[in-house]
Amino acid sequence: MKTIHDFLRAKEEGKKITMISTYDYWSARLCEKAEIDCILVGDSVGMVVNGLDTTLPVTVDEMIYHAKAVRRGAPDTFIVVDMPFLSYQVKKEDAVYNAGRIMKETGCNAVKIEGGEEVAEVIQKLVSVGIPVMGHLGLTPQSVHALGGYKVQGKTEEEQKRILRDAKILEQAGVFAVVLEAVPSKLAKEITEFLEVPTIGIGAGKETDGQVLVFHDMLGFFDRSPKFVKRYMEGGRLIKEALKNFKKEVQEGIFPGKEHTYD
Ligand SMILES: Nc1nc(=O)c2c([nH]1)NC[C@@H]1CN(c3ccc(C(=O)N[C@@H](CCC(=O)O)C(=O)O)cc3)CN21
Ligand SMILES: CC(C)C(=O)C(=O)O
Ligand SMILES: [Mg+2]
């Protein structure tokens, strides 16, 4: 099992970190077999698995349910769990309670929190009680309504300054890594060079210390995907063909064959 120190060392040694966002037993098993460095049980589960338009309705109980399944599938992989909307913003005490539940009930290794300066105190508190925290800057989907949509962040110089400043504040607060989502690669490079802790990018160019993608996106399960997604497989098409094949074979009396029958 990797530790937070292995991620720091990877940055020092210039070895890229790979992270995949996924939510269940079988996909976690495959990630572990493929030796992916880190699994993120993302609150994107609400959109990917549950068909919601945003991540906002996702609950702590739902995150725990998925994270337990992921841990069973990947017993030896470093697992980070997203803290969902409103589970850490209201009071520091809530954040400790919710992060504590996530750690205790799932056996994960760390939690992830979206935001900059406004969550620095919460992060400090979690780190002080022994809960490793991953930060998340740039496009923070839990603020989609405030951002006016899923849009690239850090386009203006003012925004860039704010994001870089937030990154420094997160490092001081004690995060062991930071996700940079949907920002120009130049800004991601600048943050990556400045920080001692690793950056993990999604739509942030190639200069970050690692990359993260959602399992279902990279395997092509959806017909539409954001610009930053590379499809390593046309999973949706392959599955649809298999389903059609099943229907055809049943209709034509080909399935089940002798080998599938208890005679
Ligand atoms: N399946 C999935 N993959 C993700 O990467 C992901 C989620 N869900 N849910 C939570 C957030 C939301 N994310 C998103 C969602 C949409 C865009 C998107 O549509 N981007 C457009 C427009 C960019 C712009 O206008 O600036 C694109 O074409 O890339 C980007 C990130 C990333 N996260
Ligand atoms: C896209 C990643 C970074 C995430 O936060 C998620 O999957 O919820
Ligand atoms: Mg998330």
Automatic annotation (TrEMBL):
GO molecular-function terms, A-Z: 3-methyl-2-oxobutanoate hydroxymethyltransferase activity; magnesium ion binding; methyltransferase activity
Pfam families: Pantoate_transf (PF02548)
Record-listed 3-methyl-2-oxobutanoate binding positions: 43-44, 82, 112
GO cellular component: cytoplasm
Residues holding Mg(2+): 43, 82, 114
Subcellular location: Cytoplasm
InterPro entries: Pantoate_hydroxy_MeTrfase, Pyrv/PenolPyrv_kinase-like_dom, Pyrv_kinase-like_dom_sf
Cofactor needs: Mg(2+)
BP-aspect Gene Ontology terms: methylation; pantothenate biosynthetic process
Record-listed E.C. numbers: 2.1.2.11
UniProtKB keywords: Cytoplasm, Magnesium, Metal-binding, Methyltransferase, Pantothenate biosynthesis, Transferase
Reaction(s) the record says it catalyses: (6R)-5,10-methylene-5,6,7,8-tetrahydrofolate + 3-methyl-2-oxobutanoate + H2O = 2-dehydropantoate + (6S)-5,6,7,8-tetrahydrofolate
Co-factor binding comment: Binds 1 Mg(2+) ion per subunit.
Biological or metabolic pathway of the protein: Cofactor biosynthesis; (R)-pantothenate biosynthesis; (R)-pantoate from 3-methyl-2-oxobutanoate: step 1/2
Top class in the EC scheme: transferase
Active-site residues annotated for this sequence: 181
Quaternary structure, from the entry: Homodecamer; pentamer of dimers.
Function text: Catalyzes the reversible reaction in which hydroxymethyl group from 5,10-methylenetetrahydrofolate is transferred onto alpha-ketoisovalerate to form ketopantoate.
Family that this chain belongs to: Belongs to the PanB family.
Protein name per the record: 3-methyl-2-oxobutanoate hydroxymethyltransferase
Organism: Persephonella marina (strain DSM 14350 / EX-H1)
